[in-house]
Amino acid sequence: MHLGAQDVTARVALLEGESLAPGGRMFAQLLLNAPAHAVHGDRVVLRDQSAQRTLGGGQVLDPFAPPRNRRREARLAQLRALNQPSLERALPELLARIVNGLDPQALERQFNRPRGSWQLPATALEIATRQGLRLFGREHWNALGETLLAALQRFHDEQPDELGPDRDRLRRYALPQLERPVFIALLEQALAAGNIETSGPWLHRPDHRVRLSDAEEMLKARLWPLLEAGRFDPPWVRDLARELGVEETQMRQLLRKLARLGLLQQVVKDLFYPESTIRQLAGHVLQLEAQSGVIRAATFRDRIQLGRKRSIQLLEHFDRIGFTRRFGNERKVRHDSALATEARPE
User: Is 99 found in the same domain as 132?
Assistant: First the structure.
């Protein structure tokens, strides 16, 4: 491949068929054996390995082509949108088709044009995410918001006794195709508008409530001091039922309902921790990471003065709810998680 003064060995991956006849045109991706500097609109010449015969030529559309899924219809539609002489003419179609929005900095490099030199369409939105700005078409962004609210309402209809999902569960349920920073920006917009509310880590529509009966309120008042007194080692369902003289099934149902209300978290079957205790444990995890850079089961066990089995159960629970991420035998805190923000000392 000859591009300006560069001469790089490449393989050609045709995207719209198995072969290309002389004089034909087709989208293709060049797999280079060495880095090359290219921007949108650059012309390339393809010659054989001896550089004696010219095989064809082309124009660069995307210098940051994906390594996978290159032949999918969504990718081909993106290339058709890029097949325009200028960024301004390509933007409207790109904004309508890019699921996770466009990165303005990537566009600057792709088209070799500083941000101040190009104009956004009137229908474009600049959305701030935790990883920088993303550009969306207004219609597409509004449709994502409507999908989010409809999915949350559907969750309430399917699980009327649950207060709602947490943030990561809602993303998997409603919009799994969205990158996490984009989903969080969409969710924060819905929260700011009052279309979604939070109760602890749980998300729900403003009019959705899970309420305790009078008998359940009375039983909660009796069991709550026992849970708080247990601190990092609260009593199991069977112990609470025996202590308060109720059936295990009744106790289990109430604790699960309290978990759905966001007052408890179930770490393993029949073992529930109050939210305040979970935040204290999360605070210890944050301190351990600040001291050592990682969290290890042994140091966490020593910090909370419990056995290894319970310590691992707690750490695995933190993995499941998105507070920590495991790497081999060590863990790191996901600092963008809601629990990390709540447990972090002021």
Answer: yes
